[in-house]
Design a protein that fits this description.
Arc Repressor Mutant, subunit A; single chain; mainly alpha
Length: 148
């Protein structure tokens, strides 16, 4: 006589699903980091440049940049310093609040970002090629439920 297999319990399902999500995210982040490094920047720096591109022409203060980053970067000030040193970001004082330093992307920063965007798009395509449009919609919806 066959016995019915019991369905895995919710904690085991949750662990399996979330470990799979972490593994997939780790692979994607590793490949995105490699694509960025080929252009001389880190993935966190790429995200800062993307944030500043969206804030043109005014830019953002450091705290706003930190709050918009995809991953928590430990020292946004030092990251901005490195980007300023390379000429990819400029800083100026806020016109009405001298306590705020505003960071904005420069033309060389925009040019680099266009190049890195192509590499990132390639990685996104590589990692999503086996998913149908409906599966991509589902993945987006499910990740939104798991994430912030």
């Amino acid at each position: 006589m066959k016995t019915a297999r019991s369905a895995p319990d919710r904690p085991a399902l949750a662990e399996s699903a979330l470990v799979a999500l972490m593994g997939a995210a780790g692979t994607l982040v590793r490949d995105l980091e490699t694509a960025c490094q080929a252009h001389g920047i880190t993935h966190d720096q790429y995200n800062v440049l993307r944030i500043l591109r969206g804030a043109q022409p005014d830019g953002h203060p450091r705290g706003e940049i930190a709050s918009r980053l995809l991953s928590r970067a430990p020292d946004v000030t030092r990251m901005l310093d490195r980007l300023v040193k390379r000429g990819l970001v400029a800083r100026a004082w806020h016109p009405t609040n001298r306590r705020l330093s505003m960071a904005s992307i420069t033309r060389p920063g925009l040019a680099l970002l266009r190049d890195v965007d192509r590499a990132i798009e390639h990685e996104h395509a590589k990692h999503s090629v086996r998913l149908s449009p409906a599966e991509l919609v589902s993945l987006d919806r499910l990740c939104a439920k798991v994430g912030p």
